[in-house]
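Something for you to look into today, if you have time. Just paste the record in under my message, thanks.
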Amino acid sequence: MRILIISNLVPLPPNSGGRLRQYHLLHRIVAAGKHEVSYACHLWDDDDKAALPELRKLCRHVITGWVRRKPYARRLPVMASFLLKGRPPELAFWRSAELARKIGKLLSNEEFDVVQIEESLMASYLDAVPATCTARKILVFHNIGFDQFSKLASICPGSKGWWHRFGGLIYSRWEPELTKRFDRCITVCDRDRDLLTERAGADRKVAVVPNGADIGACRPLGDPETPPSFLLIGDMNYEPCIDAARRFAMEILPRIRRRIDGATFRIVGREPSRAVRRLRGESVDVTGAVKEVAPWYEKCAACVVPLRAGGGTRLKILEAMALGRPVVSTSIGAEGLDVRHGEHLLIGDDDESFAGEAVRAARGGDEIAGMIERARRLVASKYDWDGIAVRQNRIYEEMSR
């Protein structure tokens, strides 16, 4: 089959959740030799442009369009037009006229069997698909927008909270309607599938292709450094990650340090916001973007996921489990994963219980060692990218019949 994938991201380097998913599935789909893949995506900066030669080694065609970061005032007319069409207004920030033209030209000149759009925020590019295009259409929900916005509203005060409530309302109407325009939809977990079908109708064809980890490349790490450090990895200009970083540094870490002298906190992730950078101090390190995350995993005693909002599933939890590091998360942070407290990871939802579980993880012992081993076996059996790619390929095969 000939497949065109339309994405917000260049999937290289695979250093964030969205990039990890798209790179690993793309790599395995191409390597299987059954399909020919072309890729259309946004360019956000020069690093994206520098990664294109590597992407072209995998794909027949690579087409791109720059997204210029413009102030809200200059986006207002487009935002208003989107709102009048019943679309979320912030989609105006995820749109490149250049990319839309190139998609239309490619699909007019060549035949494709499947057009696959990654993330609902990119669904407006369906308008760029010519009416003459006979390709089957797939939409991949990396998260469910109306669920994500409702959680964001709960952690954001004032006008920002109201804006997220409004976003949740728009998405709750728009995303279910989107499903009618696609031949197949994909979510990353059963929970997201159920949320979507509850609103869109049980007759919608929604499959689950989960997030994963590369179990073969993730060898269990040795002993961490002492005194213990706790690691948070994420996109540090994303509101749920900003909130998680601030919460851990300001509320949870002091409780840990009262029980473990010298404990530290490392925040690893691209484009840390001003609020995150302000957390730097004697016991808190903010790295910004890093080339490799493995050295940071190797140093830490435990990975922490103190999220109070978000969507989809956390690839970093699976990566940490594959590398043999204990994970301490909130219930929201672990949503959508087939994990249980005490068996695969530790869960604490308030500051005191989270600190207690983090101390428990850092002190180790036979109980934690057993949990680490069970967590790695779970990733190997259910969340390895090789098996997940088989599920994705099966969907393509079903659509070719």
In short: The mean pLDDT is 93. The chain is about 45% helix and 15% strand. The domain at 2-212+384-399 is CATH 3.40.50.2000 (Rossmann fold).
